[in-house]
Specification:
heterodimer; A: four-stranded mixed sheet; B: alpha/beta; Rossmann fold; 13 helices; globular; binds thiamine diphosphate
Chain lengths: 341, 431
Amino acid sequence: METTTKTMNMIEAINDALSIMLDRDKDVVVMGEDVGYFGGVFRATAGLQKKHGKTRVFDTPITECGIIGVAVGMGAYGLRPVPEIQFADYIYPALDQLVSEAARLRYRSAGDFIAPMTVRSPFGGGIFGGQTHSQSPEAMFTHVSGMKTIIPSSPYDAKGLLIAAIEDNDPVLFFEPKRIYNGPFSGHYDRPVEPWSKHPESAVPEGYYRIELGKANVVRAGEALTILTYGTMVHVAKTVVADCGVDAEIIDLRTLVPLDLDTIEASVKKTGRCMIIHEATRTSGFGAELSAQVQERCFYHLEAPIARVTGFDTPYPHSLEWAYFPGPVRIATALENILKD
Amino acid sequence: MVDLPDQGRNNLPPLRLHVPEPRFRPGDTADFSNVDIDAVGRLPRPDVHVAPADIHGHAYGLVRVLDLDGQAHGGWNPNLSRERLHAMLRYMMLVRAFDDRMFRAQRQGKTSFYMKSTGEEAVSIAATMALGRDDMCFPSYRQQGILIARDYPLIDMMNQIYSNRADPLKGRQLPIMYSAKDHGFFSISGNLATQYPQAVGWAMASASKGDNRISAVWCGEGSTAEGDFHSALTFAAVYNAPVIFNVVNNQWAISSFSGFAGGERTTFAARAIGYGVAGLRVDGNDALAVYAATQWAADRARTNGGPTLIEHFTYRAEGHSTSDDPSGYRAREEYAAWPLGDPVERLHTHLKLQGDWDDAARDALRGELDRLVKDTQKAAERNGILGHGMHQPFNSMFEDVFENMPGHLAEQRDQMIAEQRRKFGPEWEPN
Ligand SMILES: Cc1ncc(C[n+]2csc(CCOP(=O)(O)OP(=O)(O)O)c2C)c(N)n1
């Protein structure tokens, strides 16, 4: 079958996925602060209210706790809400509804009630957003049982993963790396930004398709080491690996929970070295979980200690953003260390 | 897919979901003739120890002093001296000049972000002038006027906006997220409404220590939806905390009109009623009314009369921030059509009626303030602008995470220094 593709940036791909799901499933509703008439502060829901009506795509009061609590209730009725939290930094007022309610509803009611919601939220830094527009709180949620966490790294993945998330019957957090909404990021903040249109993964199939949750993507095959990463850092890792001429195997995890352990294990057993890269702070970050998993499964194949390249354990600074960000120098230094002997 | 059951209630019309809609959108002509505006002087000024239940009408009406011709009327007239009135106008005009200049600086790429308070200058300036200098303010991001009315150095506001090497907050915060304890100004959070219960806690502490200072807190009408707002009112009511709650109802929360915070059904001042707290609704573009209401609430709080919630009925004249273009969601001329005028203009008109003040004097003052702001800006830029190297020492990034830096942060600091040396050469120093 012939599928036609369209060049999209990440925002357009997300918008397309939402529109397709609103069309396919009359139980899907999209809601959040400024998502209705205006179409979202990042324009991810632009035009959707006009197309699908304002009882299916609407603005909400500014209460994240309310947004998620209401989404739980809508799910109990049988709807499939897709709430937006305007910035991941503002998800904390919703923590109780997410952690104690949405994530455990199926378990505590023995399947009597479920919370089939997909919470979309822009996350991550690199945009001079200061400490309340830059955070990467994914590990706070991967720590919670009963909740899935997805982080796409390209327009193609964003659309396919978002459709799969909306169809999933469990609560899903869908963190969108806002630094790469309009184009992939090399990590070199002083170089011009490349738009998605110059990148092959901006060719997005038209219409419905899904990418299975829990399947990682090997974005570069290699022998020298395995790099586990996700979101913005996939692109930074690719650039640095190319600049350093290292034959790394780069795995874009795509979903943190459920995690594609088979792909990870096979790769690390092949290369014998493993580096984990994420933008979030280091202590108790998702890298700690990955490191433990790799150690448990691949210990006898490892030729060097597992390396973590992360943001520092400080709040996200404003003016010194690039000294904080795990950019090319931090990654290159770690590559040299892990390949030393 | 959800199937609708046959409930044997088929003679009832089906339920409908109500989704609020503002009256005007882009392309419409704004017309506020339906907005119910109380006559100037209608609402009496009650005793400051009145029972909240006896002033419910004040939560639905509008406390006003100045009519639109600049005359002051009624029992709320604070009868300020000429000097105080002129100081008030000067501060309000300074906020406006400052906002214009800093907005432009962001557009010129000198910083990442800015937020104006145009049209809302009375809400911060007049309220602050009615408080004691040592009362504690817990602002949102739109009350730069508090710092200005307390004569905080303009250059330090600019240094913060530029995140430069003289920034008192060490370049850590988004522009305008000031903090100034010695000016009674609590550190601004990006997370909406968190300051609400914090202000109550400060007021409870003051009461428990037998102090006589009170606190005041501000948020937008949109933010009243957050749980923190309601927690704050409950605590304040339970402990009779000496706090003033200000809700700045500027009609818009980014692109969402006040209807998405419940404004279609009732006023924001009426939120006080359910908590048994005194509520006043005030013309926020009338600096004298804002002053008078704040003074009333401050007297009440300071004499163990407890909390007051004041809704300032105003209008956000400009975009939400430098990241926003309001032409995408509201009618173009809304501000010009706003029935309560412009707060700076209205105070100016009032001063003209007092004599000894005219348009030429105002224009001269404007010129003076513009020059002051411009000269200060030049001085601030000598300390650097965002992203141009003249920032705080790199080491400062790891300070103040804790009182004493733990080992893992010291290790990360050393790693950061090594990274910079790798990038910029072995002579690189962290300052
Ligand atoms: C907890 C939280 N949620 C969302 C945001 C994003 N946000 C910033 S300002 C704003 C609108 C606030 O409107 P309002 O309270 O009316 O104040 P105004 O901007 O009109 O002064 C929103 C939604 C935030 N900063 N914090």
